């Protein structure tokens, strides 16, 4: 089997591939029978107007969600929390809330920017091989859906639930409690509980320090970087049916199998490192908040769970699988929407994905080993431990 000829980023290939069965996505050249799949250039067949009509509702919804999130973020904290300052014996009740105010190691705007820019840079770089603006836009939309949804989720928690930041009670920084008012104004058992009325600090600083739960840094970092983790795993096929990145002549020639032991670099451990690197980045951003005393550990954990949850849903909403290595790189099709009600010539009348073998050839991943960028497909039920190359 000969290799495909190399081509430029915007060039159109003349290579055509066929696969058994039906059910190809709208990117195929045929719909029924044995579809003929044509690999095209970056902009070939793309219509911005059609794309906007297909995804207009999603774009408008994201704008609306962003506006809601911004409005809630600017609102004052809803609950009025009671908290102790001193124990009955005169000691500090909660030393964990008495740290001095420090600057963020990573500001919130930078955390949010990194959560978008870092994945987007890799989406663009991978287009050197993928050559599909529709795939680039679809992948980026999924990332934005993850980030925006997670942000709105966490700002509602900040507004309605909140909590004390570790530097809340700082006498020279945030609350600056007026000790002379403590005894007559207390509530609860032995009047040791107080509210923000004892604070003499800046109103905005007090509001911010009452919104510790949950961490916006942590939420944004995990929403963006967990999405990137799934993208790397799908495109590089780290968890697949082969050991990553063996040269083609070794993959296809059994007589060379003995050489693997003497060539450890061929295993390309770097693909695994690259795949888990986003998780390292997200965890470092979240953990830094316990170093600069802006969040409690449970604030960071709550944000991490929320961000991860949103990333999982956003990725699976846009791609055919999370863990099934045969289909997790394939962007799900969309042929109709409220602004594009009827599929036109060359488009499928349905936006459902078929999960049939040749679908793995319609959109190819970045990885080339294991036959992924050749005229091969995969067969077998979704989530099978093994798959047949056809």
Low-confidence stretches: 1-39, 250-255, 257-266, 385-390
Provide the helix percentage: 40-55%
- Quote the distance from N terminus to C terminus: 14 Å
The share of residues in extended strands comes to under 5%
- The gyration radius over C-alpha positions equals 27 Å
- Please tell me the overall pLDDT: 78
Shape: elongated
Q: How many β-strands, per DSSP? A: 6
Largest sheet: 2 strands, antiparallel
Number of contiguous helices: 10
Physical arrangement of strands within the biggest beta sheet: 1-2
Order of helices and strands: EEHEHHHEHHHHHHEE
The secondary-structure class comes to mainly alpha
For the record, the count of structural domains works out to 2
Description:
- With 390 residues, this protein is mostly helical.
- The chain contains 10 helices and 6 strands, in the order E-E-H-E-H-H-H-E-H-H-H-H-H-H-E-E.
- The chain has helices at 48-74, 108-130, 133-160, 182-185, 203-209, 216-236, 248-252, 270-291, 297-318, 359-362, and strands at residues 16-18, 36-38, 83-84, 193-194, 378-379, 388-389.
- The strands form 3 sheets. It has a two-stranded antiparallel sheet.
- Helix 1 (48-74) packs parallel to helix 3 (133-160) and helix 3 runs antiparallel to helix 9 (297-318).
- The longest helix has 28 residues, at 133-160.
- It is elongated.
- The two termini are 14 Å apart.
- Residues 1-39, 250-255, 257-266 and 385-390 have low confidence and may be disordered.
- One of its GO terms (molecular function) is phosphatidate phosphatase activity.
- Belongs to the PA-phosphatase related phosphoesterase family.
